[in-house]
Each structure stands twice: as C-alpha cells, then as structure tokens.
Design goal:
It is built from nine helices and two strands, in the order αααβααααααβ. With 270 residues, the protein is mainly α. Helix 5 packs across helix 7 and helix 8 packs antiparallel against helix 9.
C-alpha cells in the first residue's frame, strides 16, 4: 500500500468549490429564503479573510521573532473579544472589556500551558504552534463567553424580582446572583461538551483532519486532537466563569444592590 501524498490545491480547484456556494444562493432564490445576499457577503469575507491571514502567516513563519508572533496573537484576541461582546440582546457598560479580558486571560494561559507543559514546545511562542492553537482556543472561548454573557443578562433581567427579594432579605450579591451564574456557565460550556460527546463518531475535528490530509499518522493526529479538545474545554469553562464574574461585579454594587438600570437593549447606546 502506497503512502497517501499531500495534494496541493490550485485556485482553479477553489473556484470549482465555489459552485457549491452558488448552488446555495440559487436554492435561496428558488425557495425565497432571502439569504443570497448574506451568503455572498459571507463567502467574500471568507475568501478575503483567509487569504489575508495566509499571507500574514507566511510572512510571520519566515520571520519567527516573538514581537511579530505576539502582535498577531494580540490582534486575534482583540477581534475575538469584540465579536463575543456583540452577540447578546442586552448589554451593559463595560461588556466589551469584560469579554476581552475573559477571553484573553483564559485563552493565553491555557495556550501557554498547553504548548509549554503538555506539547513541550520551546519556546512556546513558536508561530507554527502558538498561532493555530490560540486561534482554535479563542474561537471556542468566543462562543462560550458570548453565550454565557447573553444568558447571564437574560437571567438577571427575568429574575429581577427574585434577585431583589433575596438582597432585601439580607443575601449577598454573590448569593443573589448564584443561580443566574450557574445557568450562564452551563450555557457557555454546553457547545464544547456537545462537541466532545460526538467527536470521532459524528465529526472529525479540523485539526485532526488537517493532519491526516497532510500525511500524519492517524494515531498521532488523534493524540493531538485529544489534547486540543481538553484545552478547548478548559478555556471555555474558565473564560465563561471569568466573564460572568466580571458581569456580576458591574451589575451589583459593593453594598449588595442590583443595578438593573445598567442593563439595556442591544440597540441602545451603552
């Protein structure tokens, strides 16, 4: 049996694959879904963004000095924080800062531990490892934080009478917010837990698939994917917890009052 070789794709191959998006657009028109414009914009953004990061990574890999690597990673982190803060239906002043801090702290710590302690990369800021691993972790943390913050703000809004009653009866802000915090953390962790439940049975994750396509032995690809999945779970949990703790600190005062007026609809200016 011959060893499978890595197949390079040309831009012609990519153009042929574009026909699948065109088919989606035609389907939207026929069924009057109204999604053709969004599909076109999403497809264009996908091409432009991936081509741009491809050129950036090519340059960074050719010049692997830590300032360049850190610059790319910081840019990714800021974008993830901004994206996570813009998905909820309710907002409060400082939401973007909280999302960015939660994602940045958990993402960078988990990435450093994973690369330096588990995989053993020296230095851990080696771009071929640090940038892709951080990217996967940020993507998962982004989803977890956005879901957690959305659920947290919705829960506090819906449970405002109960929360204020608890505070009036002498409960601390931690005790009054505990139920909402638990619901929010569960919501943030659920996508990663669902992914871990079916990984290898229903879906083959992107990192594992990429390594197999590149010719890596499946057993090694599986080991890498296990490590990555556990890193994603750790980052998602820690980022969600940090985000809802930061949100509680802003929505409750030091003298244990719930300031519901700080929560506004997403369409309002904060």
């Amino acid at each position: 049996m011959t060893t499978p070789r890595y197949v390079d794709l040309s831009y012609t191959d990519v153009a042929i694959a574009t026909a699948m998006i065109v088919f989606d657009g035609v389907l939207s028109i026929v069924l009057k879904l109204g999604l053709e414009k969004k599909l076109a914009i999403a497809a264009i953004r996908t091409v432009v963004q991936l081509l741009a990061i491809g050129y950036v990574l090519t340059w960074v890999f050719a010049h692997p000095q830590w300032p360049f690597v850190v610059g790319v990673m910081l840019t990714m982190t800021v974008i993830a924080g901004i994206a996570a803060s813009g998905r909820g239906s309710r907002r409060y002043k400082g939401l973007r800062t909280d999302a960015l801090a939660a994602i940045g702290i958990s993402g960078w710590i988990v990435t450093a531990l994973g690369l330096g302690l588990v995989i053993g990369i020296r230095p851990w800021l080696t771009p071929q490892y640090a940038i892709p691993i951080l990217g996967m972790i940020l993507g998962n943390a982004l989803t977890a934080v956005s879901l957690g913050l959305e659920r947290m703000t919705e829960e506090l809004t819906a449970r405002r009478p109960q929360v204020e009653t608890l505070l009036a009866l002498g409960a601390t802000r931690r005790e009054a917010a505990l139920t909402s915090v638990r619901v929010a953390v569960r919501a943030g962790m659920m996508p990663t837990l669902n992914q871990m439940t079916v990984v290898g049975l229903v879906s083959l994750p992107g990192m594992m698939t990429g390594q197999v396509l590149a010719g890596q032995h499946p057993e090694q690809a599986v080991r890498y994917q296990i490590v990555v999945m556990f890193l994603l779970a750790a980052a998602s949990a820690s980022a969600t917890v940090l985000a809802v703790v930061f949100a509680s600190a802003r929505l409750f005062t030091a003298d244990h009052r719930f300031v519901a007026s700080r929560l506004v609809e997403a369409t309002s200016s904060t």
